[in-house]
Protein: Peroxide operon regulator
Amino acid sequence: MSTRVEHALEQLKSNGVRITPQRHAILAYLMESMSHPTADEIYRALEPKFPSMSVATVYNNLKMLIEAGMVHELTYGDNSSRFDANVSDHFHVICQKCGKIEDFSYPSLEDVEHTAEKSTGFQIQGLRMELYGICSSCKNK
Structure:
């Protein structure tokens, strides 16, 4: 198990959250996959190991992980939420053909927040940016 997953589990425990095997598996899958899966994809990936687990269990655990600040829910145009265990500041590039999502960071985008605060007086609490295009796999088909 990665130290990142261990650290996240310790954080949950210190907040009084009971660590069930399913919860552990969902968090580990999200942190290791980095593919921004849907709840159904998580369920299908973990079902062989947890045959008694339902899709509702996955959704309930994702909701708890979101509330604990360990997972972000990404809602894009395809009507199915995707989940991201990378909660650091980063942005997404989304393929318009297959829906693949990749992370990217660009530090000067923080300047956008500061400029917005100065020009509007708002206290900026978040920034969401997505770029759309065609991924290399779809482009080469």
